[in-house]
Amino acid sequence: MQFPILTFIVFTPMAAGLLILLIPGERKREVRVAALAAGIIALVLTVWLYFSYDVAAGGYQFVENYPWLPALGISYQVGVDGMNTPLVLLTGVVMFTGVLISWNIDDRPREFFFFLFLLATGVFGVFVALDLFMLIFFYEIAVFPMYLLIAIWGWKVTREYAAMKLTLYLFIGSVIALIGILAMYFASGLGTFNMLALEGAGFSTTFQKIWFPFVFFGFAVLGGIFPFHNWSPDGHVAAPTAVSMFHAGVLMKLGAFAALRVGIMLMPEGAKFHMPWIILLTLVNVVYGAFIASVQSDFKYVIGFSSVSHMGLVLMGFATLNRDGFLGAGVQMFSHGVMTALFFAVVGLVYDQVHTREIPSLGGLSKVMPLVAVAFIVGGLVSMGMPGFSGFIAEFPIFMGLWRDNPLIAIIAAISIVITASYIFRIVGQVFFGKIPDKFKDHVHDIKAFDKIALVFLSIILIIVGIYPSILVPLVDSGVNNVLRLLGGA
Amino acid sequence: MTFIQLFFIFAAAATLGAALLVVTSRNLIHAALWLIVSLFGVAVFYVILNAGFLAMVQVVVYIGAIAILMIFAIMLTRKVSQVPKPVFNSNWIWALLIAVVMFGSMTWILNMWPQFEAIPPALDPSIDPLRQLGVALVSPEAYVLPFELASLLLLAALIGAIVVAWESR
Amino acid sequence: MIPISYYLIFAAALFCIGLFGVLARRNAIAILMGIELMLNAVNVNLISFWRYATPEKINGQVFAVIVFAVAAAEVAVGLAIFISVYRRRGTVSADEIDLLKW
Amino acid sequence: MDFILNHLLTLILFFPVLAALILFILPSELKILQRWTAFVLSIIPLILSLVLWFNFKSGEPGFQFQEIYTWYSPINASYHVGVDGISLILVLLTTLLTPLAILTSFTITDRIKAYMILFFLLELGMLGVFMTLDLLLFFVFWEFGLVPMYFLINQWGSEKGEREIWGGRRIKSRTYASYKFILFTMTGSLGLLLAIQLIGVTAGTFDLVLLTERWVSLDTSLFNIPVHTVKTIAFWAFVIAFAVKVPVWPFHTWLPDAHTEAPTAGSMILAGVLLKLGAYGFLRLVLPLYPQESKYFAGALAFLAVVSIIHGALAAYGQTDFKRLVAYSSVNHMGFVVLGIAAAAFAVGTQNATIALEGVVLQMFNHGLSAAGMFFLVGVIYDRTHTRDLSEFGGFFPLIPVYGGILIFTSMASLGLPGLNGFISEFLVVRGAWPVFTIYTALAMIGLFFTGAYILKGIKMTLHGPLNTRWVGRLTEINGRELLVIIPLMILMLWIGVWPAWILGVINKAVMTLY
Amino acid sequence: MILNASMFLPILPEILLVALGAVVLILDLVLPKKQHRNIGWVTAAGMGVILLLSIPARPETEPSLVWGGMLRHDWLGFSFTMLFIFGAGITALFAMDFKKLGHRGEFYLLMIVSTIGMALMVSAADLVMLYLAIETTAIPLYILAGFFIRDDKSTEAGFKYFLFGAMTSAIMLYGFSLLFGFAGTTNIYQIAQSVREGGLPAGALIGSMLLVLVGFSFKIAGVPFHFWSPDVYEGSPTPVAGFLSTASKAAGFVVLLRFMMVVFPDITLQWGAVITAMSVATMTLGNLLALTQKNIKRMLAYSSIAHAGYALIGVAVISQVGVSSMVYYLIVYLVTNLAAFGIVASCGRITGSDEMTAYYGMSRRSPWLALALLVALLSLAGMPPLGGFVAKFFVFAAAVDANMIWLAVIGVLNAIIGMYYYLTVLKYVYLYRSEDEEKPLLVTRPQKLAITVLTVGIILIGTVLVPWFNWATTAAASVF
Predict the structure, then answer these.
(1) Residue D386 backbone zone (phi > 0: left; psi -120 to 50: alpha; other: beta)
(2) How close A244 comes to chain D (CA, Å)?
(3) What is the Cα–Cα distance from A400 to A403, expressed in whole angstroms?
(4) What confidence score (pLDDT) does residue A230 get?
(5) Which residue range forms the structural domain that includes residue E288?
(6) How many domains does chain D have?
């Protein structure tokens, strides 16, 4: 009996959250320390998991399987392969840094961390689930704390609206997907929710054609697919920093990942049938998202829309249905997760100091907070797919995948790179360089040590993956094999 | 048409007429009185149907208790009973419609029953319905449970009625 | 002899008159009278069914007895409630008891 | 020693990263320490590349000092480095110019640490391009080099000047220039990126050595389009990317702005090395990967080259800003490089081609020396006068004779005066191109005439004529540090001009084995 | 005709309840006024003891008719009996500290009688028994709804509940009488057979089905017989409203289920369609109307209506899966809604208001209570890891299984609307501020106990699935 590491990973945040609840609400310091401890434990566990995954062997590892409701074939079954191991690590990273960044939350930190950790448990659960019921179970656990986190601790102006919009969008998506899952369950006739078993269920082509869009779009809403992406920028903007990090960094991956796991992997024929037009939607995501981002004047909206654009790339990678595309998408999920967490951390830290996010009113911040500037630049370079950073490692194969069947789309999508570059450089110039406006001069200070640790940590991950892709790519590749096997080696 | 049928029709007409007056009388006391008439009419049918005991119960319980209770209640809430206000609420036309449609559909349903035109079979003289009823109500093989429950219900109703009607100072 | 249809149609008519009273009357006590009419109609039904279909069994009559009991309990409770309402509001008119939105 | 020799390229390539890290941990108050540390550290790659130079066996065909490691296994991209004669020279040029540029930058006072780190990263990017033998990695370094340059211009560029952009907003010239620089080059690279992806998809590898076989011989149709068409499009994607960098008319408009606004050292590197990246791209990628297309479109390329030469010369003549003048001269000189490449592409396999290519490679090296020198000298005078306006200069010779002499010497090298390096390479290019594109070459010769004209104009307006008395007393003679920068360049100019065989030998072997 | 001990075993819970009622009645007489509150403890503890003592009374796997066919001793009835006893105990805990409620022995007595009625209702196998049980459930509830005789709203609630209940039960009774007549028997397990033998046309059967359905719809507050429930819930004392909306409604559901399945197996197509339509109308209307409510009890009332709609899906699909999903749904719903009303009761006891505004800033006043409310509302909304999620999952699964995907889709769309208003309440609780923030909401001990039990229960039902599911399946299987 091996150590049930996945179970530990999934339930560490939850247990920590419950423990935190037991601390009296006014002892904020203890609450924070406990949260940090939990973050560190989760990080250590995920790192350990990441490096103990045996790439050569491939397949699902660390599998645990306990019956949950045998009568309906529901089991608590977890396991990781090359596709989700990085995502588990990503979640650990974001959780850890999220706690660091949230150190200054002063309004009911106990509840904040409880909800945040509940969210984390949901996210972990989805990533490692090998059972459809379990997947949807944790998926929804991951969705609803979002509402409270945004509504309570978010940006005063839009939080109520944004939180509700986000929750309803995601909830709609998840329940639609739920219907699809149920349909799969009954159509398979196997009486099990086990994904591995359902992979071999041999759904009829007609069934797949009908149900694939339900499942795929149901989950892809959370992945921010056009035209269901609307919730995402609003949500990002309204959310408090750590939540934005979680939200854009991890949650959107959750949608994309589930769309892959449940949609593409279980209904490959449906995927083949529908992807040719879905790819056009993702193209809109990529180009339109980048374009909208470039005309925003609110710092956070820029990042929000850039996430839409980048998640479009992930989905686009899926939509190619070939090895390169999946590989790129897999890497992009990780890369974008870290990058966007970094971005939102930066935006949050800037906002904490200057209390505005209007880009034209900012300037010269690199002089007071040089590290923040550097971190933002690193993130920016990643986001424009600059070689040497993880973004390039991710985007390149996606485009290669596109070239195989959709050369025209590859060319159009590439426009987004230039657009991204243009707005990133514009923001860098306007926010961090130039003269500091007088009104900020006195009260703007450098960030705290914890924040620095978080920023450096995230930046380093981006760079390491960028210059040494072998640390990540073979892993993802082994996961891609798993997908391709189901797609008939396409 | 036999005599008994004619009698039936007469009694039915009287009962229904009284019932109509119950639901239309402006004066509630009148309505209550008409209710007694109507209930009495029903008791007559029980007699025709060889259910003498029930007819008696009808008279004792319904007319003797329920109707009188209502008259008491009417007296107690007299203040409003005499203020001239419309008898019916504004939706009475719908109520009428529903009642008529209901009647139509009920007869239609009943008409479908194969034994709709059945003639009463002769009663087995060896069976005493009253004794039968008595036995049934206390036999564990029959209706003792409802019987006991009914007593519980009446007790609860009694207590409950006191709770709401009693205003302690 | 009287066919059962007579009774049944009579009962249906009585029931519908009662129903009309329930739906149309304003005064709660009048409504309660309507309900009593409906219950009586049911009893007529029960007894005639007993007499025509299952005279050898007694369930129809038992049912009717139980309905009596329930009706008594209902009236007692109902009137008590009316009186308590009346005490508070000075009316037992169903459409004037409208503090709640209905 | 064996370790060093076996991993020499990697060491050279990544030493700047180490240097950057060392700088990073230095305390930020000690400016002098930072400067000197940077300088000393930048010498080490130079030494290593000299070791490389002397261990390079010029007679052997193919790439030497190859190293290959897995880098991005799923798409068959590997860390594959190696040098042949052409890249060797450019590596040397890069490692040579970097310390000189750093030495030049001692005048920088603002955020020295960041500045120096960026410089090392820039060096990393440039070296990477010259060394790598993997198409993907080539692109990695190609793009990577942009970023430090962007920030160098954007942050340490000239303080003055404003530009109006659309919308009527006024922004700093250096912001405008850096923005234009990065967008031009990135847009240019976009096609390159897509073409590289296309190649990667069809050939299944990014290794240049393998690609030259697989891609060139590819003749099935792609995406239901004739392979010829696809290749033509890819060819132009490559060409445009490199042409932007070189720059060839009409893609050159970013260059005067960038050069003008960049700090002196930035201009030196920009003109000295970065422009060579484009030309190197032509040599390393375009010619081997697209032999037929290159031949087919050589005429067009030559046309663009000639326009660049003439336009560059005329534009340079028309400038009153000294730095802009030098910047346009780069357009002019790099035109010769492209002309030579076009000729070689057209006459592939002939002796003319070999000669032209020799000229091209040498011209790249030479221009690296002279352009860097010129920008440096402009920088020297700018440091003292804080203006670049030629009309405010004049009659400086008596005030600063040593500087005057150096300026004239360097200008002459740039001009192509026989006996100095420029002459040799331009002659070789013209000699190679003449039989191939006679008319174009003839037109280019006219361009050369204008070259003389603008160089002389520059000298005249700076050194001669009436003295602007404003400068008396403020204008000091060139100092020791500055001499330390310019003298190695002058030595090389003279050396190649007088005895070019040492370098031509290496070039010749490389060109012969390659084409 | 001989009574023996084994005959009493199936009605052991009911007998014990009667005994408890007697104890309560006596205590009400002998205890000094100040200690009357403790009758609540006695009731709650008594319910707990009854739960334990009833274990031997659990049915065999094979259902059997007992007491002359009056009752059917099966798992469906037994399970729900247990649930009602549980619910009554919890309600007693919530009511204890309510002014003018908790110290009245009559309150507990009436609740116990009503519970007995429910227990017999869900087991009844005879029309006579069923009717009587339904009335025994309802009549004490009429009084409980109007228990605050000095409160306009409460008396009005009792008034409306009574009038509407009496009318619908009369209509239902008419349906019963027809069924009796058509079949010649009052035993519901024989009706179907004898109607079939009697050659009754389907139309007549459908007609009586519709009449009966009126009464049942009233019990479960299904559209179009729903509109009493918001008024009654709002007006009733809150613990009573909780009891009404859970136990009474669940009892209605069980009866509906049993009756439809057993009595009308030959017209499933027709009643299936009716129930489906009712399900759609109920959940949609309930949710839409809940959206605009400003009073939390009214909101919960409309949400209860909506939940009846979801549960009806389980009936509408007419399958074994459907029935078990409905039973599961009811278990969850009972626990969850009790919790919701209980928290509202605890809160309203102090703030004296059930308006949404009273909930502003609640999480600052009483974080734990707020958290419990969060759990309850999110369970109602169908969020994991709470019971509501699993319940909805099963219900929708049943719909999909029956190839009624459109119904499942309507269900999920409704779930989204539901999500909206539950979250709105949570927004008030967590986000909005109020002036009373410094004043903590003091929850009394019995309430704490009840809320804790319910909250833990909600989570347990949502995570540990096997026992509940097996329970629901066993109960469902015993219908047929």
Answers:
(1) left
(2) 28
(3) 5
(4) 83
(5) 16-477
(6) 1
Say how many domains are in chain A.
1
ipTM: 0.85
Report the length, in residues, of chain A: 490
CA D503 from centre of chain = 18
Residue E368 lies in a domain: yes
List, for residues D259-290, the tens digit of each pLDDT value.
888 888 888 888 888 888 888 888 888 888 88
Chain C residue with CA closest to E230: the answer is: C102
| Reported confidence tier of residue A490, pLDDT bands at 50, 70, 90 | very low
Domain-located, residue E2: no
The verdict on residue D371 lying in a domain is: yes
Domain range summary for chain C, segments of one domain joined by +: 4-89
Q: Which domain holds residue A396?
A: 5-486
**D422 located within any domain:** yes
Q: Is residue B99 included in any domain, yes or no?
A: no
The ranges of chain D with pLDDT < 70 are 1, 166-168, 221-223, 515
For residue E74, give both structure tokens: 């099966």
Encoded tokens for B86: 């419309």
Residue B94 within any structural domain of the chain:
no
Q: What share of chain E in percent tops pLDDT 70?
A: 99
Q: Return the amino acid letter for A211.
A: W
Going by their DSSP bridges, the two strands D77-83 and E64-66 should be labelled as: unpaired
Q: How many C-beta neighbours within 10 Å does residue B121 have?
A: 12
C residues 42-81 lying closer than 8 A (beta carbon) to B? 43-44, 47-48, 50-53, 55-56, 58-59, 61-62, 64-66, 68-77, 79-81
Rounded CA separation A372/E267 (Å):
72
Going by beta carbons, is chain B in contact with chain E, meaning 3 or more pairs sit under 8 Å apart?
Answer: yes
- Are B69 and B132 found together in one domain? no
C97 interfacial to chain B (CB closer than 8 Å): no
Between CA E252 and CA E258 the distance in angstroms is 10
**Calpha distance E346→E238 (Å, rounded):** 9
From E367, E374, E378, select the one nearest E440 (Cα to Cα): E367
- Strands (E) in E235-282, as ranges, are none
Determine, yes or no, domain membership for D314: yes
Question: Is C37 in CB contact (< 8 Å) with chain E?
Answer: no
Closest by CA to C93, choosing from C10, C15, C29, C22, is C29
- CATH for B27: 1.20.120.1200
Q: Do chains C and A touch (3 or more CB pairs under 8 A)?
A: no
B80 has pLDDT over 60: no
Structure tokens that stand for E402 in this block: 């029956």
**Containing domain of residue B13, as a range?**
1-82
Q: Please report whether residue E456 resides in a domain.
A: yes
Judged by a CB distance cut-off of 8 A, whether residue E163 touches chain C is: yes
Distance CA A358, CA A302 (A): 11
Q: C: neighbours with 3+ CB pairs under 8 Å?
A: B, E
CATH of region C4-89: 1.10.287.3510
Q: Considering chain A, what percentage of its residues have pLDDT values greater than 70?
A: 99
Q: How far is CA D476 from CA A454, D469, D488, D494, E5, in A?
A: 50, 14, 22, 26, 123
Q: How confident is the model at residue A158 (pLDDT cuts 50, 70, 90)?
A: confident
Nearest CA in chain E to B169: E150
Which residues are within 8 A (CB) of D387 and not within 5 positions of it... i.e. 6 or more apart?
Answer: none
C-alpha torsion sign, points A72, A73, A75, A77: negative
Establish, for the pair of chains B and C, how many residue pairs have beta carbons separated by less than 8 Å. 262
Chain B's closest residue to C41, CA to CA, is B42
- Spell out which chain E residues touch chain B, with contact meaning CB-CB distance below 8 angstroms: 1, 3, 7, 11, 18, 67-68, 70-71, 104, 106, 109-110, 113-114, 116-117, 120, 126, 128-129, 132-133, 135-136, 139-140, 142-143, 146-147, 149, 155, 158, 178, 181-182, 198-201, 203-204, 207-208
Which structure tokens are listed for E191? 């009706």
